[in-house]
Amino acid sequence: MELKIKEYLFNIIEKLDINDELLQGNFGIEKENTRVNKNGELALTKHPKIFGDKLKNPYITVDFSESQIEMITPIFDIVENAHKFMHNLHEIVSLELKDEYLWPQSLPGILPSEKEIPIAEFDDSKEGKYAYEYRKYLAEKYGKKLQLLSGIHFNFSFKDEFLLKLFNEINKENTISYKDFKNEVYLKITRNYLKYRWILIYLIGASSPIHNSYREECIVHMNKLTDDSFFYENALSFRNSKCGYKNKERLDVDYTSIDAFIKSIKTLISQGKLRDIKEYYSPIRLKTKNPKNPLEQLSENGIEYLEIRMLDLNPFNKIGLELKDLEFIHLFLIFCLFEDEKEIDMKKFEQYDTNHDAVAINGNMENIKFVRDDGSEISIKEKGYFVINSIKDILNRLNINNENIEKVLNYQKEKIDNKEKTYISKLIKEVKENGFINFHLEKAKEYLEEIKKESFNLKGYEDLELSTQIVLKEAIKRGIKFEILDREENFILLDNGIKKEYIKQATKTSLDSYSTVLIMENKLVTKKVLEKNNIKVPFGEHYIDINKAKKDYYKYRDMKIVVKPKSTNFGLGISIFTEKPNQNDYEKAIEIAFKEDNSILIEEYIEGKEYRFVVMGDRVVAILHRVPANVKGDGIKTIKELVEEKNKDFLRGEGYKKPLEKIKLGEVEQMFLKNQNKSIDYIPQKNEIVYLRENSNISTGGDSIDYTDIIPEIYKEIAIQSAKAVDAKICGVDMMIKDINNINPEGNYAIIELNFNPAIHIHCYPYQGKDRKLGKEVLDLLGF
Amino acid sequence: MELKIKEYLFNIIEKLDINDELLQGNFGIEKENTRVNKNGELALTKHPKIFGDKLKNPYITVDFSESQIEMITPIFDIVENAHKFMHNLHEIVSLELKDEYLWPQSLPGILPSEKEIPIAEFDDSKEGKYAYEYRKYLAEKYGKKLQLLSGIHFNFSFKDEFLLKLFNEINKENTISYKDFKNEVYLKITRNYLKYRWILIYLIGASSPIHNSYREECIVHMNKLTDDSFFYENALSFRNSKCGYKNKERLDVDYTSIDAFIKSIKTLISQGKLRDIKEYYSPIRLKTKNPKNPLEQLSENGIEYLEIRMLDLNPFNKIGLELKDLEFIHLFLIFCLFEDEKEIDMKKFEQYDTNHDAVAINGNMENIKFVRDDGSEISIKEKGYFVINSIKDILNRLNINNENIEKVLNYQKEKIDNKEKTYISKLIKEVKENGFINFHLEKAKEYLEEIKKESFNLKGYEDLELSTQIVLKEAIKRGIKFEILDREENFILLDNGIKKEYIKQATKTSLDSYSTVLIMENKLVTKKVLEKNNIKVPFGEHYIDINKAKKDYYKYRDMKIVVKPKSTNFGLGISIFTEKPNQNDYEKAIEIAFKEDNSILIEEYIEGKEYRFVVMGDRVVAILHRVPANVKGDGIKTIKELVEEKNKDFLRGEGYKKPLEKIKLGEVEQMFLKNQNKSIDYIPQKNEIVYLRENSNISTGGDSIDYTDIIPEIYKEIAIQSAKAVDAKICGVDMMIKDINNINPEGNYAIIELNFNPAIHIHCYPYQGKDRKLGKEVLDLLGF
């Protein structure tokens, strides 16, 4: 195998035309944050219950301490999506904490005494007991404060498709197994990673200074930075330094082959230096998908992915993690795949470890130098440029042109060009000015505020309907695994290991039977069923025969009615009789309606406003009144300007992706204005409300106003009965109510329509009123 | 009230413009038939179990005897539909009898001795016990043989809408209650009915001669007609005669008012002449909807409908009942409403009874005469013409022109013109020639054969899809009440009093959850779910990007594939690779497909034939293979002629109303022939099969061939597993099978599609093979 030689790899990849596939992969992120209270003290509260079983939630759990949340993304095809998912996790967690914050720093805030730091608690299962017991062992051996150092792990593997193609080409002679091939790929990357890893510390390191309350034996050697913190002048990453999250001593591990690796780990275990491989705090880990018995798994299945473990939380990023840094690590790993390996000498790796430590504790200075393999010296700058240029060379050679990659490389290069651009330089400056606790706490609070504003989207899933995003978010919170079965259709699968649920458009579920849906889908049948259940629906019929319509006068002569074309755009052809119609007017109205369409509806006129009740199970979980698209005048701005202003609201978007839709000024709206003798240039008076649409749909710019706590119980009861009449578990009940203060429903209401797919997002982010958390309601109802 | 005066009624109806509504009404039919065995002997078997509880099935039950089936229609708006429904009941019952027939005559076939005639048996409920005990009383008082006389009852009322309008006009002064008004309407009709009723005996009477085995005390006075029967020379209706289904003596009942009526009945009961009103065998009955405590109901709610009880079974009609006779009775009742009533003198009613008896026993002669109210005489002919002309006058006066009514009146007039045209004349002729038992038995057998041929339709519901008709028929058989909620949508409600089921298109039910349907509706998701369950589906993807399609060559290079446009009419743009494709051919195929559509499918090519498995619950209830529309040559006829011939099959129709569709020779078929270098004028050789379509849908003229008993169990198991994978209770599984004799499914099958609304009619009336009774399966599965 000539994997070691860059040129050889280039040739194969070009030959196979898999240049693009080289950049594909499987990416996952794990991230820890400690929780702090509003003073910046480690929160001693329990891990929030909403996140369910710590051993089962695959996304949100705890790390060492009860106060240390760990967030884990699933595997994604591109780095960006993994990063977006981590964003989601960070948001979800942030919003669930009550008066607490995610501490935006690897180094903890104000710590209590060792013994007060709570070890994560688990249930009484065998697994739970082991998890607790292992943490106790770590606490005793390393101290709880050390274990509280939080960071980010980045998991990477190539696509199997890519590796298989490579393997098939290389292994034409059938000289090697696929497993051995894969091991060699990942071991080469690992060795080069270990050699060049110091650059990541330089570029990403962000853990210094440290708070007074940290381990005394560490800070005693450090300089005071502020009243509440200590530091080393040129340190980049305390967490990656000798005093950081490290084994007690340097451990000799052999990366020449997988067998050598396993053997060396086993030796360390037998020497009592490690309890198991998990305790080996290496900057990169060789991993298998099945986490049980990792050594056996490694031997049997080979290396399945790599875990990069050196990333500090970045306090300057809302979620502690800059996408461009992750993307750089990905490119760096590709560099590690290509970079020639002339010979493998494990003795040299002690020097690489030394370089690591040196950069971590002393790297943020202009002229730090490394000893080369041949003994000569090279500055950190030169070596940094070398890595970045090598990456560029690889991409050029493979004709991979990508604007984003260029940005990523330039972003990193700037940090090499100028040490003031490193995170640590900026951090020290900030801490010096504001104090350690104060700076980080303010950042945490600032980030939370931002999150509150933008959290209605599930990042990476913005193409889905908002209602579906809300359900997914709730699922993630509870640790329910999900799969998007059909993005365009908003068709998802939720699976918590016990039950599976297929859900389309958030509220189409297995709870309702097909016939229930069919009834609701058919207005004629819905009406019949509701009537049978003594629920008031507007009396009326559709007509396609003008004479039949006229002849039926006797049916309507004793009620207020509306006569309208089946479809009408501008309200044309509609006649409303607010008194009992006389026969002549009745017939005229029918003629007018038939001029607009060849099918008309004559229906009892129901006074009042329309309210959307959402029934889930046997409860009304939300009530909303929708107001047609409108603007409120200020006496200065034109309608056009008022619309533009109203549309600036971050809640308004286009295509159901945001809670409210932007108001349009299209043909329909302009015609509607024209009927009011207005145009878009009309300047409404102060507080004058101008409606722009007849219909009140949110989808055409309507406003949503929450009435859940306002509507009397009796109408909720009627909504529930309506849903029950068609045996619906999830049902949008559209009810007209004349006077919501009248608790006698007789003559005061009618059901207009039942909807089997009520949107939930409108109730979660109403224009006025509060979030009714319908994502939670849906999942509760589904029994998750 | 001037209801008595014809002219007064005319004026009101004209004024209100409710001429049409006069002819509307509520119509229902009840009919009895004795069951006989293949020798014409009264069947002594039990009432068929399939018809369920005798006290609960509203359509099919027993009358006096276990051997006497009673069929009851629901209420319809027009007579024709009630008649059609009776047709359905007659068919349903006929087809369920095993080696038995419905005897097509009011007078029974070969009877055993009195004591051997089985009284209808009921369950042990209070109701059941009463029903049995009442029949025992009748048996003792009248004899079982008399009780076996079977006939037809016709129920009529006006639409409430019509009566209310009339009432509102008449009662402007508020002098009378609606109840009293209705009573007066129906009592006037009743009195005129009693006066003129003899005409119905003349026109419809069909019960003479009588079999030897009937009551000796009756036949002893009669003349011998054949070896096996006796008769009176001019009798029209033995059943309506003094020796027929009558009370022991003439009973004096007062019809002047409802109170007088109730009083006279009560008197008869107190005198011991009647046990209750039910025992009063009057030729017309005053009825209330609630059958419990009829006298109380009459007093409280008034008369709600009239029951005409004089109709004999007509042996010349397949179901024993000529529609034109029923329609005449309806017109006759309208005549009874209008005909002036100068004064009411109940004494005259004894003469009317005498007329009735005289016509029944002696009416079939040229010159029978009646005594008029004034004592003068009038011939039956003159009086008959008077009634028919009176009806014509009424309709003329009200401008009601209706071709059908004209036919009905002419049909009756012919019977008056010429006594040879009466049913009885024809019947005596037939019996004389063929013998009593033989004639009727042959008729019964002939009718059964006809029914077998035409029974796939539910009369009056032919506009519904055949699958829905099948389900309705099964529901009727079991006595489940139904409602058509939306005819166009084939949306029905079944209600057996215990449970309600909403069903659309026969197989869309509450059994399947909405998410199950949504999965099946989405082919992409269906495939994913099946794959997760280790069920073989064709590998493949849709493409809208030609380059992406080409780049994916590596995915398909190791399998046989089909490349095809998403939609194609004439098979254009489809490439099938029956060997692994080389890259060049693969790319060409993609280019060809993209010329036809901007979305293409590349899919693993699955060899074999496609089979539709219908899974219901956890069973495969039917398997069908569909063959594209085709003709088989005879060496003589052209394709066009062969198609015409094949289309003559009574099973082929248009628009899903018949089990198979007629083959069309449209653009698609002609293009398909052209691709074979044939035209519709081509003459196929003997036994040459020419296909006219690529697709095998029944809807485009395909043939259906039943394979239910042929396909090996293992494939049924796979079909069941497929349905289970999506949690479907009713599921059409389309499976490709390469070799149906190979019981190793590996590589021998693939699932093409799951269908949530499998048609059931194709399995009930296949082109080849047997009825799989899927209507029964659906209702069984629904728990009915």
Describe the structure.
The structure is a homodimer. Chain A is of the alpha+beta class and about 775 residues long. The first copy, chain A, starts with 5 loop residues before the first helix and ends with a helix. In chain A, helix 12 (about 325-340) crosses helix 14 and helix 12 crosses helix 15 (about 405-415). The first copy, chain A, is built from 28 helices and 28 strands. The interface of A and B includes residues 491, 508, 509, 517 and 524 of A.
List low-confidence stretches of chain A: none
Q: Tell me the Rg of chain A in angstroms.
A: 33 Å
β-strand number of chain A = 28
Mean pLDDT over all positions of chain A? 93
Percent range of helical residues of chain A: 25-40%
The oligomerization state is homodimer
Sum up the overall morphology of chain A in one term.
Answer: elongated
- Which range does the strand content of chain A fall in? 15-25%
Helical segment count of chain A: 28
**N/C terminus separation of chain A:** 51 Å
Largest inter-chain contact set? A-B, 29 and 29 residues
Please summarize the sheet with the most strands of chain A. Answer: 7 strands, antiparallel
Broad structural category of chain A = alpha+beta
